[in-house]
Amino acid sequence: MSQHQVHAVQQLAKVMGWHVLSFSNHVGLGPVESIGNASAITVASPNGDYAISVRNGPESGSKVMVQFPRSQCKDLPKGDVLQDNKWNHLRGPFKEVQWNKMEGRNFVYKMELLMAALTPC
């Protein structure tokens, strides 16, 4: 089931114009699953501003993280290290999505809504 959901995200990303950055059916990081393996995928929005990372395990379930542009991250420390404006185009840290509070009947529908909300007009 975890591989199926990650494959669904991959196909949904292709349909919606998102770019697949990484994909793995056998993730070696995170909690060890007693049955099966965890799967993961990271996709980027069409303009590259946002990234969504999904880790799905047979026991641990789904964990969805969104990475926002640095310009939208208010909790990043302001320092003198990054003075050149070219570094402002990097994305900031990942933030976990409260998946159980998202609108939608199933995993694919929730993912479609999330991608649609983060896709520029």
TrEMBL record:
What Gene Ontology molecular function terms does this protein carry?
Answer: transcription coregulator activity
- Entry's localization field: Nucleus
User: One GO BP annotation here?
Assistant: regulation of transcription by RNA polymerase II
The GO cellular component terms are: core mediator complex; mediator complex
Recite the UniProt keywords alphabetically: Nucleus, Transcription, Transcription regulation
Q: Source organism's superkingdom?
A: Eukaryota
Role played = Component of the Mediator complex, a coactivator involved in the regulated transcription of nearly all RNA polymerase II-dependent genes. Mediator functions as a bridge to convey information from gene-specific regulatory proteins to the basal RNA polymerase II transcription machinery. Mediator is recruited to promoters by direct interactions with regulatory proteins and serves as a scaffold for the assembly of a functional preinitiation complex with RNA polymerase II and the general transcription factors.
For this chain, the family text in UniProt reads: Belongs to the Mediator complex subunit 17 family.
User: What name appears for this protein in its UniProt entry?
Assistant: Cofactor required for Sp1 transcriptional activation subunit 6
Organism, by scientific name, is Geococcyx californianus
Q: What is the lineage of its organism?
A: Eukaryota, Metazoa, Chordata, Craniata, Vertebrata
